[in-house]
Amino acid sequence: MTSEPDHVAGEPLVVLEDVNKHFGELHVLQNINLTINRGEVVVVIGPSGSGKSTLCRAINRLETIDDGRITVDGKDLPAEGKALAKLRADVGMVFQSFNLFAHKTILDNVTLGPIKVRKQKPAAARERAMELLRRVGIDSQASKLPAQLSGGQQQRVAIARALAMDPKVILFDEPTSALDPEMVNEVLDVMVDLAKGGMTMVVVTHEMGFARKAANRVVFMADGQIVEESDPESFFTNPKSSRAKDFLGKILSH
């Protein structure tokens, strides 16, 4: 478990209050209350269908909510338009399936947002993009197209692309679940590095090793509810709820 940097005790950055979401009859988020502090790494785990990805996607309004309130840095999520585009610039997202532009080079994928949304000068955006591609270990691939890279490399590009916007928080929605097993660690290593650097992160994942190593807090969800939350050591060694004990018993015995 990481020792908490001083700024983890920082002020709340993302706050969800009494958030509800239905898909038809299915109540996928049930009165969710959650606060993520600046500089904190919160890992959300739980069985499939527990609402983890919906929770993650609600934070940058990829999913709308039925009621309740979500604020980022003290401001309510905007409904649409320029304000929503600005919010999405501040709230980075790394998806399961990379979502890179297939016809653009790696460098162009990383510079597009900063130039279009942040209005950076192209030369400055390219310089910063190369710095970030170096950071994630793929600067040598900058002129290639996504299809020429492995899944692990593409996901590292997606992380660099999120970082290029200088977001306040990055959401990771099962970032390693589409990868071949041998590529998982190369992505998790980059994420651990980000966590150590103080990036505020919300990570939906099945990678328990990452949760143990990098999380400040583990949030366990089941059936659309937050069942318990605690530091990783307490959660993995002494889960309080029978639901969490059952879940950990199944996954940790493999």
TrEMBL record:
- Enzyme Commission number(s) of this protein: 7.4.2.1
UniProt KW Cell membrane keyword: yes
Tell me the ranges covered by the ABC transporter domain, including all copies. Answer: 14-248
Query: Taxonomically, which superkingdom?
Result: Bacteria
Q: What's one GO MF term for it?
A: ATPase-coupled polar amino acid-transporter activity
Which is one Gene Ontology cellular component term of this protein?
Answer: plasma membrane
Localization per Swiss-Prot or TrEMBL: Cell membrane
Catalytic activity entry: a polar amino acid(out) + ATP + H2O = a polar amino acid(in) + ADP + phosphate + H(+)
Task: Enumerate the SUPFAM superfamilies for this protein.
Answer: P-loop containing nucleoside triphosphate hydrolases (SSF52540)
Q: Which residues form the signal peptide?
A: none
Membrane topology per record: Peripheral membrane protein
Q: Which SMART domains match?
A: AAA
Pfam families, per the entry: ABC_tran
Keywords of the record: Amino-acid transport, ATP-binding, Cell membrane, Membrane, Nucleotide-binding, Transport
Q: Identify which top EC class this enzyme belongs to.
A: translocase
Please verify whether the record's keywords include Transport: yes
- Provide the family line: Belongs to the ABC transporter superfamily.
Q: Write down what this protein is called.
A: ABC-type polar-amino-acid transporter
Instruction: Name its species.
Output: Naumannella halotolerans
What lineage is this protein's organism placed in? Bacteria, Bacillati, Actinomycetota, Actinomycetes, Propionibacteriales
